[in-house]
């Protein structure tokens, strides 16, 4: 008789904060149970820059010295028992930025973590420390780096094949690739050469550091014809709200300047939606809705406000500095709801919004944009995972007035 495989048991959390993979039980011909535990995630569950926030806080509040965990979290205005806080400490430990679990009395910087997160400009020493922790110290990232460095960045499917061969489980492949791309981009290792994104070796980045100032953006935008060629003929089908009660936990609302049909704003909105946002959210399980694609009948303003304040996630496009987009984002801020910010490179966000990590998309021309599409998608996907895991978003209201609470009335 062939072995039969049972349904996986729920994921468990270990005392160190790592998540054990589901355990499956197989029953042989003699009825004896054999258990098989799948490996834990072999990389941190966030980008390096997100995890490095813990190290930066230790520098800020404890002058880089070891500090009591509860004291540090109080200064950071984070709940010591919340899932996102535990995940932050766990990821920081996985990157070897800090020592001490989310249950430890003390949290301390490792020697390399101290250098990697020290305040001030990036020096050769600091960049080398960041690379050591963000790439070299994480086995699948180090393997991808070794395979891809000094040449054109391969497609994500090719990178997934590398990871499969290295033993990374199928359901983790996309997240692993996204996080690797974000880490290498944040380190300045991904650059566009000859119309293609190239992964430069760390040695090249270290040699060039400080010798040349960064090239400023052109301040122009992708022409209407170029955007039309990239997006395709028309937007995808409308993702409407079905009749009956809406499952807001499965919706992502896109806040953006839409503009009139055929306008540059509309072409831009369609470009970002179809080529960046929807592909980036594909694995999140969320339906993506924009104001002009709300399928239910009713007053447009009330429907938009309801989507703004009830949707599980909002992606806010700050391009064109559209006042409606800022107004709707402010409502999400007041409600403390998760947001992912994106913008064109030529539209610098105002001061308050510039304090929040934003995916900046260079749309100066089609030759600049197209080679970077997959990288931008990975950046957005990584921000989405972080926002969904946290369940809230850091913004000027929640940071400076943490006691503010907005009560959203139940649906009628």
What secondary-structure arrangement, pairings included, does this model have?
Layout: E1 4-5, E2 12-13, E3 19-20, E4 23-27, E5 33-37, H1 48-62, E6 67-68, H2 69-75, H3 83-94, E7 98-99, E8 106-109, H4 111-116, H5 124-136, H6 139-148, E9 151-152, H7 156-165, H8 173-186, E10 190-193, E11 196-199, H9 202-208, H10 224-231, E12 251-255, H11 264-280, E13 287-290, H12 300-310, E14 313-317, H13 323-335, E15 339-344, H14 351-354, E16 358-361, H15 366-369, H16 373-390, H17 396-400
Parallel strand pairs: 12-13, 12-14, 14-15, 15-16
Antiparallel strand pairs: 1-4, 2-3, 4-5, 6-8, 7-8, 9-11, 10-11
- What is the name of the CATH topology of the largest domain? Rossmann fold
Helix percentage range: 40-55%
Work out the oligomeric state of the chains in this entry: single chain
Q: Number of helical runs?
A: 17
Per DSSP E runs of 2 or more residues, the count of β-strands stands at 16
Strand arrangement in the largest pleated sheet? 13-12-14-15-16
Mean pLDDT: 82
- Architecture of the largest domain, CATH level 2? 3-Layer(aba) Sandwich
Task: Say which CATH homologous superfamily of the largest domain is assigned.
Answer: Response regulator
How many domain regions? Answer: 2
Main beta sheet: 5 strands, parallel
Structural class: alpha/beta
- Rg over C-alpha atoms, rounded to the nearest angstrom: 23 Å
Fraction in beta strands: 5-15%
């Amino acid at each position: 008789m062939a072995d039969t495989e049972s349904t996986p048991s729920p994921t468990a959390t270990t005392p160190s904060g790592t998540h054990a993979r589901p355990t499956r039980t197989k029953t042989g011909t003699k009825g004896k149970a054999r258990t098989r535990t799948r490996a834990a995630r072999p990389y941190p569950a966030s980008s390096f820059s997100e995890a490095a926030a813990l190290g930066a806080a230790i520098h800020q509040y404890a002058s880089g010295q070891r500090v009591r965990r509860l004291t540090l979290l109080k200064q950071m205005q984070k709940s010591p028992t919340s899932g996102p806080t535990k995940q932050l400490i766990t990821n920081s430990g996985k990157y070897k930025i800090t020592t001490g679990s989310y249950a430890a009395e003390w949290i301390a910087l490792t020697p390399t973590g101290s250098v990697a997160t020290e305040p001030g400009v990036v020096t050769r020493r600091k960049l080398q420390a960041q690379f050591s922790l963000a790439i070299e110290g994480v086995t699948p990232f180090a393997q991808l780096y070794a395979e891809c460095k000094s040449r054109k960045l391969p497609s994500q499917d090719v990178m997934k094949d590398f990871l499969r061969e290295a033993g990374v489980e199928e359901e983790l492949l996309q997240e692993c690739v996204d996080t690797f791309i974000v880490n290498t981009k944040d380190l300045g290792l991904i650059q566009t050469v000859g119309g293609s994104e190239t992964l430069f070796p760390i040695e090249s980045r270290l040699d060039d550091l400080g010798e040349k100032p960064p090239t400023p953006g052109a301040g122009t935008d992708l022409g209407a014809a170029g955007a039309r060629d990239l997006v395709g003929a028309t937007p995808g089908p409308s993702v409407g709200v079905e009749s009956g009660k809406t499952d807001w936990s499965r919706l992502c609302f896109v806040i953006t300047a839409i503009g009139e049909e055929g306008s540059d704003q509309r072409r831009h909105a369609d470009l970002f939606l179809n080529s960046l946002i929807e592909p980036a959210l594909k694995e999140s399980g969320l339906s993506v809705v924009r104001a002009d694609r709300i399928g239910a009948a009713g007053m447009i303003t009330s429907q938009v406000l309801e989507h703004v304040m009830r949707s599980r996630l909002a992606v806010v496009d700050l391009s064109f500095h559209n006042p409606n987009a800022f107004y709707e984002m402010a409502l999400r801020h007041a409600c403390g709801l998760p947001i992912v910010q994106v913008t064109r490179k030529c539209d610098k966000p105002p001061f308050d919004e510039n304090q929040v990590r934003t995916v900046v998309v260079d749309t100066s021309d089609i030759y600049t944009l197209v080679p970077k599409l997959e990288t931008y998608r990975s950046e957005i996907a990584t921000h989405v995972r972080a926002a969904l895991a946290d369940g809230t978003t850091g913004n000027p209201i929640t940071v400076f007035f943490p006691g503010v609470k907005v009560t959203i009335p139940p649906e009628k």
